[in-house]
Specification:
Two copies of one chain form a homodimer.
Chain A lengths: L15 E7 L2 E2 L5 E5 L3 H6 L6 E6 L2 E10 L8 E4 L1 H7 L6 E5 L7 H8 L6 H12 L5 H10 L7 H13 L12 E5 L9 H10 L4 E5 L9 H6 L8 H11 L1 E5 L7 H13 L4 H14 L4 E8 L8 H18 L2 E8 L7 E2 L1 H12 L7 H17 L8 H10 L2 H12 L11 E6 L4 E6 L1 H10 L9 E4 L6 E2 L4 E7 L2 H13 L4 E4 L2
Parallel strand pairs in A: 1-6, 3-5, 8-11, 9-10, 11-12
Antiparallel strand pairs in A: 1-7, 3-6, 4-5, 4-7, 13-16, 14-18, 15-17, 15-19, 16-18
Helix pairs in contact in A: 3-5, 4-6, 4-10, 5-10, 6-11, 6-12, 7-14, 7-16, 9-16, 11-12, 14-15, 17-18
């Protein structure tokens, strides 16, 4: 038998080095590296197409998927990097990087145990979240975890452990003030862009509200997407602190400040799957709030047949989990269950929702009253929960700063502090859909409206989405426009239109 | 409002054409296409990195993931194809292909419903399986489906519907003979390569056994992987029929004959996840058998603490599902629950297992008796179930053709008919692990042994794996070899060794 004696430093510990090359291939957030099949490391390490490989440069490490290149795109001593991998390693053309087998992802055995019906332990969850934040989970492993935690399969202990683990792997903000308020809306309701109103109202009243928001998960626009059409949102910690010190509030993208980074990794896979999980949702919301240093948070839970939360039973259950987990984690949570039967405002999509917000802030004639009323309700609760208004007086206080223009002035000041106010873009292509029937609008399918807006390009195309002209209760005549699709490309416009026209019950009419 | 009137043939219906280019990038089975960010189709359709795009050439269609190329690798009117995409479309350099948005994967809503606790309907399953076979599911969508169906979450109706759907999307073999026998082993037991013995024994006795086998799912070697070290296994339908007509039996790779192609797509994602599901397993096994035209099948269920099936309760439950689903689908199933406490034979890995098989067929001195006995037991049951031997006489009949050399002659004839017998490869790098303690072997961790073999490169590296020298009950002295790791590269050898040395209970010794 041909026995091979290993050197003292084993082969996999030895640094195998290749020269890094920027391939100019954009694989979005997925890390991909390209190596020649006749490269010495492919041969010695047994790497093949789709192998997971670890690449490091100094103290930066990534785990990437290998694509094997047969053609002469790169030399045998080169390693090509996708744009995401290049950014993560801080690429320098021709510099040497190390390449080796990644450590096995041991924490996935905890995911398997969960799938087979055993609860996730704190240790298991900590290991999973650490591995996710370190980029060790492949997309299919994250998809499996998300699926295993969907459909009410996480209990309170798991949820609290997951929240804690998510906070621990990211940055955490600390503020001098004892009361730091926040608000959050559990999505699923197109156009519900109350944050952009609540923050300036509350900040104008003197409470500190350092709002971090996410980009869209399964919706056509997240708060950060909408705010970005009005001002820069990718603030770092120092910038956020400066804006809040100056104006009491900010509306920043949470991803840029690295609060709960594992949550951001999961969201990237959750988005295309479109799955809901109370446990993941509670952990996602509370980990971001606690990491942001919030002490008091009001959470809006819109309920509707086609909203994210579909029944009052489900909303009450979710509310109980949010409050219970909050108590256990030392954050005061108040949930407000609101009507989620139809879109809020008229626009769906980043820029179109921004136009609605501006109209309310400016007390413009014809500004969407539903958006205004929801924002005032939530702002009132925040003012009460944060101790700025007496019980029952919050709503009136909120209304006075909105009516006086103080909230609008505060919003402009916040936008300036965040880097300068912008004019939201307008779409190059629009199409008006007109009713073929006469009747009273009795129901709206929010999920399919959201799909139309997404097919039109939202949220990536900021000007894309739709304007909705037919609220529940309104009477529509034959030929009357009920929605307008906005898109930045004719292909997307056509795609959204084909889908919209194929839906029978986008809007349900009652004959008159 | 700037209203855009669509032409009669909408933009997404119009064929957008690009010239196909072979990129020489191997992404394994994943379809990837490369387009310039300034390509007119990216702009008009709103395609971005990671968009799912449909590409067609004549009647061939693929749905691929888009990578956007910024550098000047290809021209703006070109579309680059990964090797898998190039093969699937039958690539011809410079020929025009169509590019458009793929239709939304509507069937995934049935997966979501399953995740939320509602059963899969027949219609839902049919739509899912059709979409998977057509390549419309992304890897994360398949991972989600597999997770949702794992851990006993599929009932009998779902399992039968899934099996039927899987049969219907692939080819189905029809044979003249009324009795077509088959055998199958539910994996998890390293080295259990009885198929390569049962087929020649049964065929030598005159029963027809057109065996199709899979490659490894989560194990270090599948039957097809092991057989491939001895003869070609990628037979098409005509070749399989010719071999069976000539020799009564064959051992072919099922994937090459397109039986139950959706199962093959799922297996590609199941493999890295390493999840088990009774429902998916029953559907996978029975869909392949029924599609192959089998009428009577014996299924080996090895039970052991570290085998795939870990308890007799689990084995009985699985056996009930296999027999029950078989009855409903018109195939006679007999399950045999066997000992799965330790590896069968001495080799683990394609070529190492082939050497064990050859020793048994040749009645070589020192041939692994456990492998021989298991094969005879199963062959005896097949001979009885298929009506060739009376009840209680199958084992003796099997033994006589093995002892006489008739089975060995039949095996060589089958290999010749499949394209010519081969000599299995030997590994270039080996490392002997010796015991640091003295004692009696009382337990073996099959899962971790399998991991060692996989880290050494099996099954992709055919010569890789391990030879196991210490069966349960044997006495090991200090310094005595208990396993030898085989690898085709030093990196893989080191990786397997580091893992093996870190395991405390790969083998459990009782002090003497």
């Amino acid at each position: 038998m041909n026995t091979h004696h290993l050197p003292q430093a084993t082969a996999s510990e030895q640094a195998h080095r290749l020269q890094m090359r920027r391939m100019g291939i954009d694989t979005y957030q997925e890390m991909v590296v390209y190596m020649r099949s006749d490269c010495h490391i492919c041969k010695s390490e047994g790497f093949e197409a789709q192998s997971r490989v670890e690449v490091w440069r100094g103290d930066r490490h990534i785990v990437a998927t290998l694509n094997v290149v047969h053609a002469a795109m790169i030399a045998t001593h080169d390693i090509g990097l996708s744009e995401a991998a290049w950014r993560a390693l801080g690429g320098v053309d021709g510099e040497l990087v190390g390449v080796r087998h990644p450590a096995p992802v041991l924490s996935f055995s905890a995911v398997r145990a969960k799938i087979y019906g055993r609860p996730l332990t704190s240790d298991g969850i900590n290991a999973i979240v650490r591995d996710i934040a370190d980029g060790h989970y492949s997309d299919i492993e994250m998809a499996s975890l998300i699926t295993a935690c969907s459909g009410s399969r996480m209990d309170m202990a798991e949820t609290i452990a997951l929240t804690t683990a998510m906070i621990n792997v990211g940055q955490r903000l600390h503020w001098d003030s004892e009361v730091m308020v926040d608000k959050h809306c559990v999505g699923g309701l197109p156009g519900n862009r109350t944050t952009l109103l609540v923050v300036p109202i509350v900040a104008a009243c003197g409470l500190k509200i350092p709002k971090t928001s996410s980009r869209a998960i399964t919706s056509p626009a997240g708060t950060a997407d909408t705010m970005e059409t009005l001002a820069p949102v990718a603030l770092d910690l120092a910038q956020m602190r400066r804006v809040v010190d100056l104006e009491n509030g900010c509306i920043a993208w949470g991803g840029a400040v690295n609060l709960s980074p594992a949550d951001d990794m999961l969201i990237r896979v959750e988005r295309p799957l479109g799955l809901d999980s109370d446990g993941l949702l509670v952990a996602s919301v509370l980990s971001k709030k606690i990491a942001a240093g919030s002490t008091h948070v009001v959470i809006d839970l819109p309920v509707g047949r086609t909203a994210k939360v579909r029944s009052f039973e489900a909303a009450n259950a979710l509310a109980g989990k949010l409050v219970g987990a909050g108590d256990a984690l030392g954050i005061k949570v108040r949930t407000i269950i609101t009507d989620g039967e139809q879109p809020v405002g008229r626009g769906i999509g980043p820029a179109l929702e921004a136009h609605d917000v501006l109209a309310v802030l400016q007390n413009a004639p014809g500004a969407p009253d539903d958006l205004r009323q929801r924002a005032l309700l939530l702002a009132g609760h925040v003012l009460e929960l944060g101790g700025k208004a007496e019980v029952g007086k919050g709503l009136a206080m909120a209304r006075s700063v909105l009516d006086s223009g103080a909230a609008w002035a505060k919003f402009q000041a916040i936008c300036e502090a965040q880097g300068g106010m912008r004019v939201p873009p307008k779409a190059a292509y629009t199409h008006v859909m007109c009713s073929k029937h006469r009747g009273r609008v009795i129901a709206i399918d929010n999920r399919r409206l959201a799909s139309v807006a997404k097919l039109a390009g939202a949220p990536k195309a900021a000007a894309a989405g739709l304007m909705f002209h037919a609220p529940i209760g309104s009477i529509i005549e034959i030929g009357q426009p009920y929605l307008t699709i906005h898109a930045e490309s004719p292909g997307e416009l056509a795609y959204a239109l084909i889908y919209a026209e194929a839906q029978e019950n986008l809007i349900s009419l009652q004959e008159l």
